[in-house]
Amino acid sequence: MKSSSYYFASLCCLLLAAVAFIFMSNQDSSVASGIPKNYERAAGDTFYCQGTPEEVADEIEQKIKPAQSRATDQSTGSVYLRYEHNLVEISGQGEECRINLEDLNRVNGGSFIYLGPGFRPASPSSSSGGSSGSGSGAGSVK
């Protein structure tokens, strides 16, 4: 093979890698853009929905994108869908059904205390949310 062929093949591989990187980095944005496209905005990052939280969560996962993890708060019936960059909370039923779309940077920064069951590490009991730096969460080194 001539050196020009290697150069061309290398250039093609580099271009393909760049396109794949861009595609993968924009995957989670489908949730942040898909919810406003499919649901009417109530205010800010809150949207109206119809049905039970379970039905709406199923609809979001089918129409927009499957979640990385899903949990239901048995006491309230709220459903939480976790994505790489977003947390989606579906609460209420029928006319009271609401979807809250949160950026995980806000969630991880301590803006929220409770994310629902199944999301670890939980907030330290002595803090107002976020990381206290104690290392007591899942995956910490002791």
UniProtKB/TrEMBL annotation:
Pfam families tied to this protein: DUF4247
Residue spans of biased composition, Gly residues class: 130-142
InterPro entries in alphabetical order: DUF4247 (IPR025341)
N-terminal signal peptide: 1-22
Span list, region Disordered: 121-142
Keywords: Signal
Protein name as annotated: DUF4247 domain-containing protein
Organism: Corynebacterium lowii
Lineage, top ranks: Bacteria, Bacillati, Actinomycetota, Actinomycetes, Mycobacteriales
